[in-house]
Specification:
- With about 675 residues, this protein is of the alpha+beta class.
- Helix content is about 50%, strand content about 15%.
- The protein is built from 24 helices and 21 strands.
- It has a five-stranded antiparallel sheet, with no helix packed on it. The protein has a five-stranded antiparallel sheet with strand order 8-2-15-18-19.
- It starts with a helix and ends with a helix.
């Protein structure tokens, strides 16, 4: 009960200000929780709670001899976790721990400023991992709270309410908006990520990698993260045609599929296309991999400013460097084609290799099917019929496999995800002398009814098989379509969206799940619109804007000069605005200034060192032209002004007090 009574008791000013600062620091650290190791999150949480308990109870701060060993211990943990102190992930971890430790040794004003400035710096690191509107909105809220906390420690007299401090912090933030707009429009655009580090390409991200082993893609199937978005210029293909080609894997060591060095060469492979092309634009998220995704097969080379894009002999699109930023590119694909219908036998050998002494039962099964099949197509059909008739299961949680993983899968567990079936089919094909390889990418996608973009998520990650048949070339064979046809034939449209209202921003379906889905689509459309608008402001767009303003082909020196001039103009306008507000002053000060001018005209100006009380005593004691009635009004005026300016009038609101002062001034006149 005693503790409860203490909790309900109003906090002192210092405690309330410190609690507000802790709240601001928690907002700064919150977005990085998902990207930091669990032990760092736990350590920082304990530090924040410890500091809050010390503030609440009014206890002494911990000794530096206690904090120093703890700090050294956590720094050692950072090094053991990241094996470095350099880089975005390790650097953010160090800054996060430094902030929470600094909160436990705040003894002077400089410590407060160190915490505030470190928080502002750490706030920027949130954009290393996400640049969504949600992070931007949270950052704005955090800045307002942080500014309010900083202002709270600056007041020496009566402190305004929290609402007024937050309003003042919001006004301070709004003053930065015009200069921010100028910097965004005129700052020389650079190629590369704005929020990133030089070694970000080595940072692990969720997505497909350049290798595949059992379970890799199954992990992605649970992720709702967006892999890329697509805007079709032509009609949207049907769901069974939406195979987004990524990486072709042709080298197998018995467990893991990788890409052979020989297949990385950039060369043109014979391709005969049929039918009409499909044109579309892809907005791909950062992946830390060099691969671009396109419907198979891409027949045009995407153009990326500042990036070299190559088309390999397997019709994979790749850049020279890993993709560490959101990019956008236009592609044209043909869905009907003959891919390498004629090939030399020596070339085909690379897609027949199998590691020795692995999967003997699979090799025996392949030999049996080969003997019983009249040609390669019949052998493929026999394997697919085996998957269809035997009790194989499609599951995200397949059992563990041993050394002979394909044997275990085909004859024991018979449960797996797409990579299990694709890998087993390729091994069987190669064992029969049929060239085959694994292709990884994405399959499917879902149209957002709000903005018309197709969203392809990490959960759409997929693996399938390509086999080479004489006179036909490389042919896609997807065993998943046999085991789980619903996985391939999913509708790309939203079947429960209801009747669209206001252009798709609302729907009339009363199903709660549909409302949640609609809200998700709306938010993703807003976020995508922001990304598209920002991405669209490329160096070329900046040049076009300046050219439309009459600057022609402007070089970077002139652009910097223009930036400085525009920035100076904006700063001058803001300064004039602020000086105008200051000249107007608050009504209370203006009324008191009018009183001073009135007295000065009668020969009694206020001295620079005189406060209201001293000035009033001198006026009332002097032999002035004031009558007793005027002196009474003057005494009441000065007393009320002193109360309102340095305290608060007990019986009057601020507006009523100002009205009374103006009335008394009229009487004095």
């Amino acid at each position: 009960m005693k503790l409860l009574a203490q909790m309900l008791r109003p906090m002192s000013r210092d405690k309330a200000n410190t609690m507000l600062l802790l709240c601001a620091c928690a907002l700064v650290l919150a977005p990085n929780v998902a990207n930091l190791p669990p032990w760092i999150v736990a350590t920082c949480s304990v530090m924040l709670l410890w500091r809050g308990w010390i503030t609440f109870r009014g206890n002494r701060m911990p000794s530096r001899w206690l904090l120093l060993p703890l700090a050294l211990l956590t720094m050692g943990g950072v090094y053991l976790t990241f094996r470095t102190f350099v880089g975005s992930e390790a650097g953010v971890a160090v800054l996060t721990l430094l902030l929470t430790f600094k909160l436990l040794e705040m003894h002077a004003s400089r410590d407060l400023f160190a915490v505030v400035f470190l928080s502002f710096f750490l706030l920027l690191t949130n954009f290393f991992n996400s640049q969504s509107l949600a992070i931007a909105a949270l950052s704005i809220i955090t800045i307002i709270v942080m500014l309010a906390a900083q202002l709270s420690f600056q007041y020496t007299d009566a402190i305004p309410s929290l609402r007024k401090r937050l309003q003042l912090a919001s006004k301070i933030l709004l003053l930065a908006v015009p200069l921010t707009v100028v910097l965004f429009i005129l700052f020389p655009r650079i190629q590369g990520p704005l929020w990133g580090m030089p070694n970000d390409s080595r940072t692990a991200r969720s997505g497909l990698s350049s290798s595949m082993s059992p379970g890799n893609i199954a992990k992605l199937a649970l992720s709702g993260e967006v892999a890329f978005r697509v805007k079709f210029t032509d009609s949207v293909p049907s769901s069974h045609q939406l195979y987004w080609r990524g990486i072709v894997l042709d080298q197998y060591d018995g467990r893991t599929w990788t890409k052979a060095a020989a297949s990385r060469r950039n060369s043109q492979t014979p391709l005969q296309t049929h039918g009409n092309p499909v044109r579309y634009q892809v907005t791909q998220e950062a992946s830390s991999e060099p691969w671009l995704f396109a419907l198979e097969l891409p027949t045009s080379m995407p153009q990326l400013a500042g990036k070299f894009v190559a088309n390999t002999s397997s019709y994979e699109l790749r850049t020279a460097r890993p993709i560490t930023e959101r990019i956008r590119y236009d592609v044209t694909s043909h869905l009907a084609f003959d891919f390498l219908p004629q090939a030399d036998a020596n070339v085909l050998k690379q897609w027949l290799a199998l590691p020795p002494d692995y999967n003997p039962r699979t090799l025996a099964l392949a030999a049996q099917i080969r003997r019983e099949s009249i040609d390669d197509q019949a052998a493929i059909d026999r394997v697919l019929q085996l998957f269809r008739s035997d009790p194989f299961r499609y599951t995200l949680e397949p059992p563990l496999l041993g050394v002979n993983s394909v044997d275990d899968f085909l004859f024991s567990t018979r449960a797996g995800f797409c990579e299990h079936y694709a890998s087993a089919l390729v091994v069987l094909m190669r064992a029969m002398g049929i060239p085959a390889r694994v292709v990884t990418g994405y399959q499917g996608g879902q149209i957002n009814p709000v903005d018309g973009y197709m969203i392809v998520r990490q959960s759409d990650a997929h693996a399938w098989t390509e086999v080479w048949l004489a006179e036909r070339g490389w042919v896609r064979v997807d065993p998943t379509a046999v085991i789980a046809p619903e996985r391939i034939s999913r509708d790309t449209a939203t079947t429960d969206a209801g009747e669209p209202v206001l252009g798709g921003l609302l729907n009339t379906n009363s199903n709660p799940a549909s409302w949640l889905r609609s809200m998700r689509f709306q938010w993703e459309a807003i976020n995508n619109g922001w990304n598209q608008w920002v991405l669209n402001y490329t160096p070329d767009e900046q040049k076009n804007l300046l050219r439309s303003l009459g600057f022609g082909n402007i070089d970077w020196q002139t652009l910097v000069l223009l930036l400085l001039l525009a920035g100076a103009t904006v700063m001058a306008a803001l300064a004039a605005l602020l000086l105008g507000v200051r000249r107007k002053g608050d009504p209370l000060t203006a009324t008191y200034a009018q009183f001073g001018k009135l007295m000065a005209r009668h020969g009694y100006p206020r001295q620079a060192h005189e406060g209201p009380r001293t000035y009033a005593l001198r006026l009332l004691a002097a032999d002035t032209a004031l009558t007793d009635k005027h002196k009474h009004a003057t005494r009441k005026f000065m007393t009320l002004y002193e109360q309102v300016r340095y305290g608060r009038a007990e019986d009057l609101s601020p507006s009523d007090a100002l009205t009374t002062l103006k009335s008394l001034l009229t009487q004095i006149r």
